[in-house]
Protein 1
Amino acid sequence: ELKVEQNPLFLSMQEGKNYTIYCNYSTTSDRLYWYRQDPGKSLESLFVLLSNGAVKQEGRLMASLDTKARLSTLHITAAVHDLSATYFCAVERTDKLIFGTGTRLQVFP
Amino acid sequence: DVKVTQSSRYLVKRTGEKVFLECVQDMDHENMFWYRQDPGLGLRLIYFSYDVKMKEKGDIPEGYSVSREKKERFSLILESASTNQTSMYLCATHLVNTEAFFGQGTRLTVV
């Protein structure tokens, strides 16, 4: 059974700081996705990672995938308040997505 | 843009009621999914469908059923609502190697 774990579950960070969210999964997969969810809203896609070593960047966020380690990271550079949200990773398994528990990020001044 | 539309943003139902959650997508995708989202548990797959008339159980199907009579529409049915089904329900469509597109969510409260 595929399990997807994220840590931390909650992250409070100061503006301007850097931090990394980790996503570990238990069985082989080459496809991993990151989503953002704002309070009361639905999920929107951030990154699609489709192979070992894939790296994607958008603004202050950078995601990477290491399929051998079964690990993806979402790195936040110089955080700003607008990044406050919940972030989910999801691993693809036979056409379905299995989601992590989410990381709730709060950025304060 | 893919649009996935759920019929209600908020619903309040009584215990024992039969509840229908509707989802429509406009991209002609075969695959459609229903998830529920609870704090600390992430999104859990309830049911999914790869085509009209087809349905497959996800990880937590108990207490739910689904209907896919048309390609664009996927309905989630709570046969007899219970308080432990109070949750946020999300419909999505997803193709292999592409991101999933989600509806706006339905927050269901069962009292």
Protein 2
Amino acid sequence: SSELTQDPAVSVALGQTVRITCQGDNLRTSYVHWYQQKPGQAPVLVFYGKNSRPSGIPDRFSGSSSGNTASLTITGAQAEDEADYYCNSRDSSGNHYVFGTGTKVTVL
Amino acid sequence: QVHLVQSGAEVKKPGASVKVSCKASGYTFTSNTMHWVRQAPGQRLEWMGWIHAGYGKTVYSQRFQGRVTITRDTSASTAYMELSSLSSEDTAVYYCAREDNTGWFTFGNWGQGTLVTVSS
């Protein structure tokens, strides 16, 4: 089965840059998408595909991928970026989806 | 704009079933795939399955195969997720999420979530 592994928690100083990683074998063939989830709220898509952000998502969110590892970078983190972040992709069958283990981002 | 409105919180006893609804508006319901995702307290998001609202095709996570049934009522623009043989481990917030028609298989719209509590 496909699994996506993330670091449990990272912290970043206000205005600095933080990178969140996601590892999984299926990432070699599937694109990764990133969701932000704040306490008590539904997830929100913040980055997807090769290089795309949904409308309304600040350009401080960017993504990259190499081999079996994908990354979400927040450049100039703001207090409102403090949240849990989940990566997500499809497995090799293309019919099943999987979420990463999640990373809690704390902005100091 | 797209809205997904889910049914209210449920309390169920172990062994029972629960059926959660997700009413869609703001788009052509039958044009998209609807997914169900759950999140136990303090835990990660967990994908459960999907239904193409037009064709009615379903795919379920192997973890829930045999216990989950996803259906839809096109006349009501509503998707449903029924989970049977509930145990305390099924206590979670259940979300519906619409898959975007961008070709990227992303979930651009989510319901507000439905808390299902399983307790004797």
Protein 3
Amino acid sequence: AQSVAQPEDQVNVAEGNPLTVKCTYSVSGNPYLFWYVQYPNRGLQFLLKYITGDNLVKGSYGFEAEFNKSQTSFHLKKPSALVSDSALYFCAVSHNKLIFGAGTRLAVHP
Amino acid sequence: GAVVSQHPSRVICKSGTSVKIECRSLDFQATTMFWYRQFPKQSLMLMATSNEGSKATYEQGVEKDKFLINHASLTLSTLTVTSAHPEDSSFYICSARPGYATEAFFGQGTRLTVV
């Protein structure tokens, strides 16, 4: 069975500092991995995905993620956080259906 | 990216009544759409997979008679919460994936409050 773990409920970062939101996965076969962001009372917005190819994936709003097969991880990163990045972030894995992690709330402080 | 539109964004209804939520793919056809439920400060729980022209596939523990899904066309799926109760109050989100994409796109969600 496929599953996704986001070990941190919340991540706090000062504006301008780098941020990392962690994600590990468990899936048989080659995974399709995704990051989505959710703002209050809104649906999810697609940020980036890993399907195949380069382990470092670049996405929207300056975010990137690194696929690490040996550690079964797909951590989300950004070199310099903005206050407007504060939101709820979901990691997801897809086999035949999309399964989400529990979500990590990112709080960027001025 | 592709656009998925969900309506209404917010609805309040009385206990015992039924509520219909629409999910439309605006610029692509979707043979499959997905319905999720999200409780406050929690993740999205997949409720069912909506299949155009056939019956929906429900996840374990989801009452198919309570949550009726109809996918009558390639651009529209509806979720009807029947005989709503306060415990059905939640945030419902639909998604669809265009045939040309590997990622899913989501509607803006519907906040249902049953009073």
